[in-house]
Design goal:
mainly alpha, 8 helices, 76% helix, rod-shaped
């Protein structure tokens, strides 16, 4: 009937429940707050549509809140990602600081690999960067399989020692 005080009482008694429904559907607090506001605007404008039909008034309110939140969720899914979404997406590329650190680490690793015997450094590169098996490496360098394992183990220990300096 357009009574503001009655609407205020209705809001005070139902807002937590209806906001919770919106938040559960949308999983975004700010958006749930907007939808809850839309819900109460709809309730104010269409209060005359409520009919006593065996369902409680709370069921009618919950239905409005749930349907409004689902409509918003559908609109969100249908929207094409644009500049609004871009601000929430993380750039997978490393930032300037990370690139500087990586560059320094890469140079340090290259220097440490340079301290290894040339064959052993090549075996380490092929095993750990190119994914070659011990058997492939043993055949490539014409050494027994156990010798290749020893080369790699000792080379890794030497690299570890060099990299911690």
């Amino acid at each position: 009937m357009g009574e503001r005080s009655a609407f205020g009482d209705l809001y005070a008694g139902t807002s937590a429940k209806l906001f919770g429904i919106c938040l559960r559907v949308l999983d975004d607090r700010a958006e749930a707050e907007e939808v809850a506001q839309e819900v109460y605007v709809k309730i104010w404008r269409h209060a005359d549509r409520y009919r006593v039909n065996g369902l409680s008034p709370m069921t009618w309110l919950i239905t409005i809140a749930r349907n409004t939140a689902i409509d918003r969720l559908r609109r969100r899914r249908e929207a094409q990602p644009g500049l609004d979404v871009a601000e929430t997406l993380a750039d997978p590329a490393p930032g300037p600081e990370a690139m500087a650190v990586q560059g320094g680490e890469r140079a340090h690793l290259a220097a440490c690999l340079g301290e290894l015997n040339a064959n052993r450094a090549e075996a380490v590169r092929r095993a750990y960067l190119l994914g070659e098996t011990y058997a492939d490496l043993a055949a490539r360098f014409d050494v027994p399989l156990n010798t290749m394992r020893t080369w790699l183990r000792r080379s890794l220990l030497q690299l570890k020692e060099c990299l911690t300096r």
